[in-house]
Amino acid sequence: EPPVKYCLDVNGKNYEINEGESLKLSGTLIDPIIKISAGPFRQFQLGGVAFLYPRTFSFLTDMKDPNCKIWTLSGENLTIIYALHSHDFTIDKYVSDLTKKLGANNSKSTPFTIEAQGSKYLGVKVAATIKNSVVTLSIVRLTSVEQTKLLVLIDSPDDSGQGSQEYRDCLALLQTSLTCNLAQSGVQSIPIDGASKGVHVQARPNP
């Protein structure tokens, strides 16, 4: 699990330190006033892909399938999944497999992207009604030559149909913190001033 970053205040001077790290302070401290507080975010960082997420989210890994490794970050309403496939795996394939499992026949397509650090990452948004509850999956594909990296946001929208507050906050956080080192990850992105076409798929159960 990524470490928590703490802010250490010593006599009004702030120091940032990660959980488990040591900090050496120079000089002599006489009757110091010390305050420590946990930062609001952790940084997920793997294979050239990095982004911030809320510190309070749980962290799980699933390495059982050698062809698909999964990291899961979960809050109250939102779950973030980072999936690393050992082979080429398209979003169309992901959505097709998902809608088959849901037994959905009807679909509607609209664009979906994440804009971050000067690039647009094209994706798919799947909205499914399960037992009278709506669940959405917002997916972007970060692709390298030999592997496929998928970032998935699974959300339970509010009664108005809008994304939960947790979803909106994390999407805004991704837009300012998501970075992809092309040399390490082989990520394909489109500059913000380029064309963008995404797909939105809405799945409904059979009547």
Give descriptors for this structure:
207 residues; mainly beta; three-stranded antiparallel sheet; 14% helix
Structural write-up:
The protein is mainly beta and 207 residues long. The chain is 14% helix and 47% strand. It contains three helices and 16 strands. The protein has helices spanning 91-102, 165-177, 182-185, and strands spanning 5-10, 13-18, 34-38, 41-46, 49-54, 58-62, 68-74, 78-85, 104-106, 113-116, 119-130, 133-143, 148-155, 179-180, 190-191, 199-205. Strands 6, 7, 8, 9, 10, 11, 12, 13, 15 and 16 form a ten-stranded mixed sheet that branches. Strands 2-1-3 form a three-stranded antiparallel sheet, with no helix packed on it. The protein has a three-stranded antiparallel sheet with strand order 4-5-14. A hairpin with a 2-residue loop joins strand 11 (119-130) and strand 12. It starts with a strand and ends with a strand. The relative contact order is 0.19. Residues 183-207 have low confidence and may be disordered.
